[in-house]
Write the C-alpha cells for this entry.
Amino acid sequence: FQVADNLYYVGTEGLSSFLITTPQGHILIDGAMPSSAKDIEASITSLGFKPSDVKILLNSHAHFDHAGGLAQLKRDTGAKLAASAADRSALETGTYPGSEDVKAFDFPPVKVDRVLNDGDQVILGGATLTAHITPGHSAGCTTWTFPVTVQGQKHEAVYYCSTSVAANRLVSKAKGPQYPGIVEDYRKAFAKLKTIKADVFLAPHGEQFGMEAKRAKLAPGAPSPFVDRGELTRAIAQSEADFEIQLAKQQKAAK
C-alpha cells in the first residue's frame, strides 16, 4: 500500500520492506525472511511496478528476519546492495555475530556492493537517502532518513533501525557480550537518534510503528495517520527505557 507519493509498503504482515520509486529505477529497503522475497516481489508487481526496475537494495540491520530475503531479491532484480561497513561481514557470511553457533539465526549470504559509513547518501532518480549508523542491535545498524511528500506537503521520513535488546547479550560471564562495546554502542545510538528530526516514523516491524492501525485509518481526504511529529521522540524514549531495564536484568544475572 502507498504511504507517501513515491513510498510504498511491500513487506509482510510483521516484517517491513519499503519501496521508494523514481523515474530512474527504484530503491528497496530490507528483505524480511529468506522465504519473503517472492512475496515482496509480488507486492511490487501488484502496485504496478516491476521488480526488475529495483536498482538499489538497502538494509536496516544484518539479522535473518530483515536481511534473509536480500540474496534472492538481488538475484531476481539485478540490484546492487549498499550496506554499512560494520554489518558487511554478517551479510556476506549470513550469520549473527556473537551467536554463530545458533544455526536458526543463519540466512543466505549476500555480497555487499557498496560499503556505507555514517552520513553517506544513496541517490537515485531524485531520491536521496541518508545513512545514520545507530549501532547496538547490530554493530552496523543503519537508520535511514529521506524526504517524502504526503498529501502535497513535504515531510521527513525516518526508517528507524531497531534499538531493542532482543537476543543480544549485553553482559555475560559465560560468553561475554554479543560483541565488544555493545553497551556503549546502544548509548551512542540513542544519543544520535535524539538529534534526528522526522515526522513520518517507520520501522522494521509493523508493530513498532503501529502499521495496521494507521493503515486502517487511510482514507481519501483524511489526514495521513503516518504523519506524527512526536512519534520518533516517543519511540526513542520508550526503547531507551527498555534497554536500561534489560541491561540491569542481565547485569544482575551475571552476578
Q: What stands out?
A: The first strand starts at residue 2 and ends at 4. The longest helix spans residues 231-254. The chain has a mean pLDDT of 98.
